[in-house]
Write a structure and sequence with these properties.
Largest interface: A-B, 62 and 74 residues
Distance between the termini of chain A: 70 Å
Strand order of the largest sheet of chain B: 1-2
Structural class of chain B: mainly alpha
Number of helices of chain A: 11
Number of strands of chain B: 4
Shape of chain B: globular
Oligomer: heterodimer
Helix content of chain B: 55-70%
Structural class of chain A: alpha+beta
Number of helices of chain B: 24
Strand content of chain B: under 5%
Helix content of chain A: 10-25%
Shape of chain A: elongated
């Protein structure tokens, strides 16, 4: 590396990252796998109770670490930084202080949620932005060379990584090298989506066009593997637009980094299964007039991180860690232009509720410098990656990094909430059984309501309120009957339906519900929103059941062959679509966390997916099964048959049957 | 006489697609006549340097997007589209990006070299591009001086530009880096190449086992002429890469051999290599017919050609970054990758957004208004014809017909939406996104 004489980057602000070549040139690209999924893309398993999410913040251009975590007590610092020294830093102990433009981060540090890792670098140093950035982003200590980045290799090990575009996402335009896997394909998501293609389905002509694009992916293209892949990607895209849409729509933020980090928080809140989010702030190549410039960058960073945590839902706090990185630090001795030249080691932050706050590593000496006058690193950056990989992302750090590095103790505990503080179960239990002609029976703790006097068309579906002190019942014409604390928000009773209503689900607030027709058409009322439907698709089998997610921001539709269609924040966990069923599916229900569901067949057969557990099947009757409902804990369920028989499984208590024709079970 | 479908395939690969009328005309003459006509660029005089490059008070960012528009306009309208296609190939091969060069005049000069020498002698092209300021700056030969050699250009010259990885040693890289010392830009004017004898390392160096006072250009002459084995390696490397650009990825060794033979027969004539590709029987194999995805530049140029929009109205430059291909900004020195590289959701999303955007730009919206009077089958066929989709799959046809049937059943829908949306759907059809 030549350090004498100016290079282009010393005359011009460093503005964009370069991604070094990797992989074969022209040829040797990984062949397309046959694309088999149908409406099952982006079925990334959601972040589980014990899994972590990482946000990387690239301080691109080479951040001046000595003026971010300032050794104010070292007299040598003032000598080296005759004009650039910061004298009003915010002390964090051991003679160090944070830059005065980082007050919010200082407050977080004081809460024990910020690890300051000192002296991070590698040997021998390289002073080129690109080469050094590549070294950091490859994150590879193995002997052979690799084409991928350290985060990408960790994501490669997740299920279905080759086809899942939401495990790793970039929010700064391009997909940085550390996100690139050997098999995975991370996405770059826009900072705004506005009226992007496929997003706004209010216009019916537009919606039909989007559905036509999505329909390219149903069936073979007849144009070979690339044609199939193209069609499938278009289909995936049309689903993705609806998947990520809930994360958007927030107000514009005062800086680009803040826009990225606030979007990151919304994406996490939307529970899309994203594991790593890459963000970037440029402009750290401060060769001249550094003081104000760097202070502005520090303030931008401080505000953006604070805005991230303000936006992030408390539910996700235990799952999130942020880390900064940069291709290198800067020269301890300032240059003649009130700036600093390329350096080596620098401090970095790892931030989160489960982070072991405080100082890590060793502060590099300001007197024992290397031959270029730069700091000698005390921590290899791989040692910072190792615990992030192992503890936070659950990856094999040694395999990902190509070598065993002694990990820093950056975390107090792994991600997630300990099982002991999970939502409590309730001891009360009950359910309603309703017959086609309007009879309503309350069993157990379920309130007894009067039956309906006049039902024009048979009752086919129902849902309880969030308090379980009321319920709605729906007729096949979409007429709605409300009981207890359930209130009426609208119905299809006065509409001419193409197909009958067959299923319903309620939002968690009790202030809205969806009705679903057998063609998968969705009718949303109250605070229930439309997230998609199969209304424009040609279904093999009719829709027979639906279930909402616990957030009320999504739902599943289930066809009689067990095919599952997931919308909004509902994830696909599996279906009986490929199984030849003895009896058709007639009911479904989601688990309390919404991370799985049960499908119930008319012979009482149960199919459980995701975090739904199997507790038994079949009801002691020859009558066909008509209803299925889990207990409040989700650790058991009831199955109801048309003759009023009810089977109880798991922790669902035996509460009794009714001697009446039954078509609906609501718990 | 050739099949029309094969002619249409040739026009997509050798250019940016053709009209049905062109296909019909060319299907009435022998294949090699058409190939030779495509290789004859005499109808298209060398372009004048766009005035914006030297316009006062104009930022380099503005010059850059104007040049992107200018080049896309050429792709869409040139009477020698193969020349633009090859210019795009060389841009991806000697991939140089303005985010580091920061001077569009230098980027244009490189682009003009690629165009002028698109089918010339490969060795001449390598010599010329090596000494242009764009490359000197891009791969750090600008500060490469005796005593502190920079290996960046020396390595890529062999790894990416001529021989391919594994066909040289680190010792060769170091020796070549020393040979290239002193080949810099002029002090005080980086738009000029200058050789500084005092910065050149004139000591003996051992390159590929030969010890002598190597100068930079000697390295090129040795690899591409002096040493038959390396020349053969380079010919195969370039032949395989160009086949991947025009036909399909991972060509069979026998295909590469026959192409390399043609390339070598007339001392690395690019013209002869390109001709051999289009004349090769495998160029018309089923594998070739479905073997490539259109790159964003090819797809955008094809759309602009068909709907008759120029870059100033179509503004593709605001969308192509998200599509994954910004002209004059390859992501790295190895250029763009083919096929699957383009097929990610965010990249196809950018295509969809632009396909929607331009359908509302005058005079585009009424392009397909004639379908209003046609039945569903004829209307969709009219759209295929308009887009030069000569052999649509039954799958795509059925999806478009199903869409049009439903759209027409909606009596509340505005009629114009129907033909405007068909335009977008055809741009997003798999046929139109494969090359």
């Amino acid at each position: 590396m030549t350090t004498s004489g100016p290079t282009i980057f010393e005359r011009h602000a460093f503005s964009r990252r370069r991604f070094i070549q990797y992989g074969a040139v022209g040829t040797g690209v990984v062949a397309a796998s046959p694309y088999l999924s149908k409406l099952q893309a982006f079925a990334a398993p959601p972040v589980a109770d014990n899994q972590g999410i990482l946000i990387t913040i690239n301080l691109a251009g080479g951040n001046d670490g000595l003026n971010m975590v300032i050794p104010y007590a070292d007299p040598r610092y003032a000598q080296l930084r005759s004009s650039l020294r910061v004298t009003n830093s915010l002390p964090i102990g051991s003679g160090l202080g944070l830059h005065p433009s980082l007050p919010k981060l200082k407050a977080r540090f004081d809460q024990g949620k910020v690890a300051v890792v000192r002296g991070v670098g590698y040997k021998p140093p390289d002073l080129s932005h690109f080469t050094s950035g590549d070294i950091w982003m490859h994150g590879w200590g193995g002997s052979s060379s690799v084409a991928s980045g350290w985060v990408g290799r960790a994501l490669d090990r997740l299920p279905n990584a080759a086809h899942e575009s939401l495990y790793g996402v970039s929010l700064h335009g391009s997909v940085s090298e550390h996100l690139q896997g050997d098999v995975g394909h991370p996405s770059s998501l826009p900072l705004n989506i506005g009226d992007a293609f496929g997003i706004d389905r209010r216009d019916r002509s537009d919606a039909r066009m989007f559905d036509a694009v999505a329909s390219f992916g149903t069936g073979a293209s007849g144009l070979g593997e690339l044609g199939d892949l193209y069609d499938q990607t278009e289909s995936d895209l049309m689903m993705l637009t609806q998947r990520i849409r809930p994360a958007y729509g927030f107000a514009n933020q005062p800086s680009n980094l803040q826009q990225q980090l606030v979007l990151a928080a919304h994406l996490i809140n939307a529970n899309l299964g994203i594991r790593v989010i890459d963000t970037e702030i440029d402009g750290f190549d401060t060769h001249s007039d550094q003081r104000d410039w760097h202070a502005t960058l520090m303030a931008t960073l401080d505000n953006a991180i604070a805005a991230f945590f303000t936006t992030l839902s408390a539910r996700w706090l235990p799952h999130v860690a942020l880390m900064t990185f940069s291709e290198f630090g800067r020269r301890p001795e300032e240059n003649g232009d009130a700036g600093t030249d390329h350096g080596t080691a620098a401090p970095h932050f790892v931030i989160g509720d489960h982070v072991r706050g405080g100082l890590h590593g060793v502060q590099p000496s300001l007197t024992q410098l290397d031959n270029d006058g730069n700091l000698v690193p005390s921590v290899d950056f791989h040692q910072m990656y190792a615990p992030i990989l192992k503890t936070w992302l659950g990856a094999d750090d040694r395999a990902v990094l190509g070598k065993a590095y002694s990990p820093l103790g950056l975390f107090k505990s792994g991600p997630g909430i300990p099982a002991a503080v999970k939502p409590p179960t309730t001891s009360s239990a009950g359910y309603w059984l309703a017959g086609p002609t309007g009879h309503v029976h309350g069993v157990g703790t379920a309130t007894k309501f009067s039956s309906i006097a006049h039902v024009a068309l048979p009752l086919v579906a129902g849902a309880s309120t969030h308090t379980h002190k009321g319920l709605w019942l729906a007729g096949s014409d979409g007429g709605i009957f409300s009981f207890g604390d359930a209130t009426f928000h609208g119905s299809t009773g006065g509409m001419r339906l193409n197909k009958p209503i067959v299923a319903m689900a309620a939002t968690p607030t009790g202030k809205g519900y969806w009705l679903c027709a057998s063609d998968g058409g969705i009718f949303a009322y109250g605070d229930a929103h439309f997230y998609g439907s199969t209304g424009n698709m040609r279904l093999n089998k009719p829709i027979v059941a639906m279930a909402a997610t616990p957030t009320g921001k999504g739902y599943w539709l289930c066809a009689s062959d067990g095919g599952i269609f997931a919308y909004g924040d509902a994830h696909f966990y599996g279906s009986t679509g490929a199984i030849r069923l003895n009896s058709p599916i007639v009911a479904m229900a989601a688990t309390p966390l919404g991370r799985g569901y049960w499908l119930c067949a008319s012979d009482g057969g149960i199919f459980s997916y995701g975090d739904a557990k199997f507790h038994g099947a079949k009801v002691a009757t020859s009558a066909k099964v008509c209803g299925f409902a889990p207990s409040l804990s989700g650790k058991g369920y009831w199955i109801a048959a048309a003759d009023g028989t009810v089977g109880a499984f798991g922790d669902a208590p035996v509460l009794g049957a009714v001697s009446d024709i039954t078509s609906v079970l609501v718990a | 006489m050739p099949l029309p479908a094969n002619v249409a395939h040739l026009l997509r690969r050798a250019g940016f697609g053709g009209s049905n009328a062109q296909v019909a005309t060319l299907a009435a003459q022998p294949w090699d006549t058409t190939v030779d006509q495509l290789l004859d660029f005499s109808s298209e005089p060398a372009p004048l340097q766009p005035g914006i490059l030297t316009a006062p008070n104009t930022g380099d960012w503005e010059k850059e997007y104007r040049l992107q528009q200018w080049w896309l306009d050429r792709m869409a309208t040139s009477t020698a589209p193969l020349q633009e296609k090859l210019t795009l190939f060389w841009h991806g091969h000697f991939a140089t990006a303005n985010y580091k060069v920061s001077d569009m005049l230098l980027m244009y000069q490189q682009n003009a070299l690629f165009r002028a020498n698109a089918t010339g002698n490969f060795r001449d092209l390598v010599h010329s591009m090596s000494l242009q300021p764009a490359m000197l700056i891009w791969l750090d030969n600008d500060p490469n001086v005796k005593g502190s050699p920079n290996e960046n250009f020396a390595r890529e010259l062999m790894e990416l530009f001529t021989l391919g990885v594994g066909n040289y040693s680190q010792t060769d890289v170091v020796a070549s880096a020393r040979a290239w010392t002193g080949h810099n830009t002029l002090d005080g004017d980086r738009e000029q190449y200058h050789f500084y004898p005092t910065r050149h390392d004139a000591d003996p160096k051992t390159f590929m086992g030969v010890t002598q006072n190597w100068d930079g250009p000697d390295i090129i002459d040795f690899i591409l002429n002096g040493d038959a084995s390396h020349k053969q390696t380079a010919a195969r490397f370039i032949a395989a890469k160009m086949w991947t650009f025009f036909a399909y990825a991972d060509p069979e060794p026998a295909v590469v051999t026959s192409l390399a033979d043609a390339f070598l027969a007339n001392d690395l004539s690019i013209h002869d290599l390109v001709r051999a590709i289009f004349m090769h029987p495998n160029f018309l194999s089923p594998k070739a017919m479905t073997g490539l995805v259109r790159t964003p530049a090819e797809w955008v140029a094809a759309c602009m050609r068909i709907v008759g929009l120029n870059g100033d109205n179509a503004n593709p430059q605001w969308f192509m970054d998200d599509m994954g291909q910004t002209l004059f900004e390859p992501p790295n020195v190895s250029g763009w990758r083919p096929n699957e590289y383009w097929l990610t959701t965010s990249r196809l999303w950018a295509r969809a957004n632009w396909a929607r955007y331009i359908t509302w730009q005058d005079p585009v919206p009424n392009t397909l208004s004639a379908i209003t009077a046609k039945n569903v089958h004829d209307a969709v066929q009219y759209g295929f014809d308009y887009f030069g989709i000569d052999t649509p799959s039954a799958h795509t046809r059925s999806k478009l017909e199903a869409w049009l049937t439903q759209q027409r059943a909606d009596t509340n829908a505005w009629t114009n939406y129907t033909f405007i949306n068909l335009l977008t759907l055809l741009m997003l059809s798999p046929e139109f996104n494969l090359a």
